[in-house]
# Entry
Amino acid sequence: MFMSPAIIGLLLFSLGPMVASLVLSFTQYDMLSSPTWVGGDNYATLVRDPLFLKSLRVSLTYSVISVPITMVVALLLAMLLNSKLPVMGFFRSAYYLPSVISGVAVAMVWRWMYNGEYGLINVVLGWLGIDGPAWLTDERWALRSLIFMSVWGFGGTMLIYLAGLQSLPTDLYEAARVDGASTLRQQWYITLPMLSNVTFFNLVMGIIGSLQVFAEPFVLTNGGPNNSTMLLPLYLYQNAFTYLKMGYAAAIAWVAFALVMVLTLLVFKSTPVWVHTEAGEN
Amino acid sequence: MPATKRTRHLLNSTFRVALLSVGCFFVLLPVIWMALTSLKSADEVFKTPPVWLFSPQWGNYAEVMRLVPFQRFILNTATIVGLTVLGTLLSCSFAAYGFARLRAPGKKFWFTLLMATLMLPSTVTLVPTYIMFNKLGWLNTFAPLVVPAFFGSAFFIFLFRQFYLSIPREVEEAARIDGASYLRIWWSMFVPLSFPVIATVTVFTFVGAYNDFFGPVIYLTDESKQTIAVALSYFSGSPRIGPQMHLMMAATTIAALPSIVVFLLAQRYFVRGIVLSGVNK
Amino acid sequence: MTISEISRRAVLGGLGIGATAGLVGCSNDNGSSQSTPTVSPGSSNQPIEGAKELTVYCWSNGPTIDDNFKKRVALFNEQYKGRFTAKMNFLPYDQYWQKAQLQYAAGKPFDIYYWDVQAYAHYKKNLVENVQPVINTTALADTTKFPSALFDPWRFDGKNLYAVPENIQSMSLFYNKDHFDAAGLKYPDETWSWDDVVTAAGKLKKTSGSKVTQWGLDIGTLGVWWGLQSLSWAAGSSWVDKALEPTKFQMTDPATIEAMKFTQDLMWDKHIAPRPEERNALNQAGANFSSGAISMMCDGTWAISGYQQMKAKWDMTAIPLWKGKRVAPYWLGGWVIPKKTAAKTAAETFATWSATTFQPQMAKNHDWIPISNEARNSKDMLAGMPAGFASAFKDIENAKIGDIYTANMQEIFNQVFGVNLDDLYFNRKTPEQVAQKIQEMATAKL
# Structure
């Protein structure tokens, strides 16, 4: 009964289009004329498409680096912010502020800050006597620049951690304090295990989210230089709406889907080892 | 030793505040830069090296207000955002209770399927979805933006579920023995216990729906139905004509205000959440 | 802005720049001064096919320019009161094409939409109306009043037009007069060759220590594939055998390789133009020429509006001669009407009205460059333009279309031209290598 709205919604709005896109992945479809069945051709092309393989590599690199760093930064900040000091209200807002501003404008500000010679970042580095690279146009630095920017978007993850910290029962800490445990030990032995549910959520969502990043590379680099920032969703979009190869794009999407699914299942399977739940089920 | 304890606490707090202040500056740098830019003249915007001192052009804001009749978009935006937040909160916390607590056949299957909807890039489901909304006659109405929210979204169901999983079972077992229905338990125990999550989800859905420009721009046609986020996107210019940076930044700054207010309001509930869970224990 | 980004812009911008040449400051006086024309397209007693309500789609160029567009539609509604009611709808560029695509997929195409290269795919799928019969009933068919030969690239079947042209853009040389005055040099004019430009640029370049404070030249749109191709054209070659449905690329022609070498040398060997990294650093939204850091630069005529706000004095002239010749690229702006439009007559009327009756007003507005010869050369037009505007458009009859129309063109722009020209300018690959690589990769995609 409780699950029914979600299941109805799923059947109504999501499942149909998903199945349709799966079918489309076996067709040639330009959205202008009816799709024609090509069997597994799209998938066969895919494995031999150097740009697809490259974008797969780029996307994986991006996720593997960006997700853990973002989570650690978010958790540390959430712990620092989880205090009853009156200034914390201000700090919480300040740290979350970047996440409420509309994406395109933020991306434009970053593009500008990354400017090789006169961008804010290199100006600041210049004060410290460091000669910064031409971030977005240097093949070695472009992807790192995007990752750095993604870490800056830690606000959502931090907020979820903060909500988790706020829900922790205070009696455990009191007991620990009575036993003379240091703050650090308390965090390590109580906070982290108690938060594992939240960490699990953030990890799964981080993986799913990072493999869907589109707006930032689209606005900042459009995949360049030399396709070094051609993240999978961007390549997919180009194929779908710029090159009108929707069938091929669907094939890419389903491969990406399989990849995320496998990663997520691995994380789910690993939960008994590290995720602590009151209810003892997962 | 209460004295040393207090000193340690004080030191701890000072350290905390100092660390946060430094970090704060760096995190806010892009935002500060945005705000500064919104007050520059078109000429100063691209000055190299960057200009730090200048006479603020408050006229940029007047210009933005003239170009974008925000007041015309406020009602549309409020309707869409309000309904989305309401729908998401109700449906997701409700469904998540089922996924977290109840034993139902195929629960695992449905949950996996629900998660799967998050994993397929939406670019490829857009065409079938669009055709479906067209068949339903929903194009150029708020329905495609609002109705799905009332049927839950996988992300928030998952989020609620994770929090419900960490609520001790004894709490509801006692209530079950007293003869309370599941609906009652959900409404009078789980919902109040999860105030911090509700606040979080509210902020997320608000910011998400408020900043969403793709949905309205694709599904709505009439200018009279458009939202603030869409109006903002017009400052990006076109591929050949670049953006008018100073105006774009001023418009973005104005548009960010409601989200900030919502966050400040939601923040109070974070605190209230602790108090409540304390009382219930 | 990187070079690859410019080439992307070129790809994206395609022809559609018409909408963008708004002279922002002088566009608020239209509407009331317009006298009602004696003969308007579609105003006769012909029967109306389809709805009387028309939604006109265009991508957004920013609030100021969009506003001018709304005024045009208001004027149309005023002149066709009781007959048609048009409504404007703007979308950001990328969503505009996405939505056009989605509407076609749903079997409910736009009533009428603004042209860009993407629409060629719509023609290829037989979805776009042949507008020749309608054009034949209007002044637009008059070869003395309109540069009809320039419409040929849009005659996709060899005979008929599949979009209604209403404005035109080209490429020209922009220069900072203050810099020339300070250096005591004569201004460039249409007799200048690229050698003259190189000589002058050397004299205009200023350095302070190791830093260049003023560049004599910026590669500008000469570094974009169509700018580069204009040199090939002048030398009697071309990148493809024909712009419409090319059958082969001819990149390895010595004329094209020489053009590539020339532009590469401007940056690397002669260093009178900033190198890519220097250029990225300088370049933000094309403000380099505007901010007075550059003395000369080739750019599209859509850039005029941006430069009008410059503090320094500036002017423009025709692109310099190469091997004694000059062939500029040009682009048309105009309207596409789907076969399945819901408002056939209204759409046809709006398009042809824009291309004929509205032209004098377009000239007065200074927001787009009119397709009508008379309007383009009218006093009203020239009064608000830099002195060299006329010279830049004098040779327009000899210009060639700055586009290539074939199914995989978007892919060739992004994956072949963009990446390889980056190799030429950023990574200093030899012109021979780059030409060879483009040749192979592009041919494979034909």
